[in-house]
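Suppose you are handed only these lines of text.
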Amino acid sequence: MSDFKKYQCLECEHIYDEAKGDPDSGIAAGTRWADIPDSWDCPICGAPKSFFKLSAIAPCIALPPASMQSME
Ligand SMILES: [Zn+2]
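From them, the structure of the protein bound to zinc ion can be written out as follows.
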């Protein structure tokens, strides 16, 4: 099994690695992002789970059109 994903904090760039978990916060190694409680937050800066984005190896994903339009 090698399909663990990594998620990066937008505030401090801390990486949550599903393969490693976050033992200091009671998240066992191998815990999937979807299984982390919403009450969990960044162990470094305290940002909420929603501040993390998938750290993808794939080419960057374009912003949705709605966000583009609001740039004017
Ligand atoms: Zn953080």
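What can we learn from it? Residues 6-69 form a domain with the Rubrerythrin, domain 2 fold (CATH 2.20.28.10). The longest strand covers residues 6-9.
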